[in-house]
Amino acid sequence: MPARLCPLPSALYAVLLGYKESPVAEERRHLGAVVRALCRQFLVGAGTDLRAAAGGAVDVVVPVPSTTRTGLSPLARVEGLGRAVTDALAGAAWAPSTLRRDRLGAAPPLAHMRPHARGFTVQDGSTVVKGCRVLLLDDLYVSGSRAQSAAASLRLAGARAVVIVPVGRVLRPDRVPAHRAFLVRQSRRACSTSVQAGQFSGA
């Protein structure tokens, strides 16, 4: 369930790269605040849809780890994100250390369009997620390899349900015909909705 569609190029894509890769700390903090606001806005507005997708209220929110960076995931390092998430999803726990990527070479490789169910390790055994409905929070969803691998690892650890929520779902209309056709349909739908709204308002 993507919070936003993210065609390339776009300002959203720049935000979702810059909050973790900008060499300027002040810019990372500023863009991190934008990411935090986008997450909170979506989670507050999509509560009903999230409960339907998960089969009930979300119990745990887990950010997807990086496959290249050590330590906490970039999302877990965004100041105040955990509080924003738990406020938006009353009753859900923020668990940023649940997943990790094995750095010793034992984990299978993850590549574009090549997810692996054992690509990540669930910390603390399965006690954090066993029997729980998990919201898996990601920043950018491109091919889905990383997020799908993380979701499979959580399911293997006993998670009852896993819903993947990327802040931005990357679309490449210049390279992928299906993406281009989808954006055209969305644009027509938006225009149609706008016209109908104008008719009802007397515009």
Explained architecture:
It contains six helices and seven strands; from the N terminus they run E-H-H-H-E-H-E-E-E-E-H-E-H. 35% of the residues are buried. The protein has two domains: 168 residues, Rossmann fold, CATH 3.40.50; 29 residues. The strands form two sheets. A five-stranded parallel beta sheet has the order 1-7-6-2-3, with helices on both faces. It has a two-stranded antiparallel sheet with strand order 4-5. It has 203 residues and is of the alpha/beta class.
Short note summarizing the structure:
By secondary structure, the protein is of the alpha/beta class. It contains six helices and seven strands.
Structural key phrases:
two-stranded antiparallel ribbon, alpha/beta, 203 residues, Rossmann fold, 2 domains
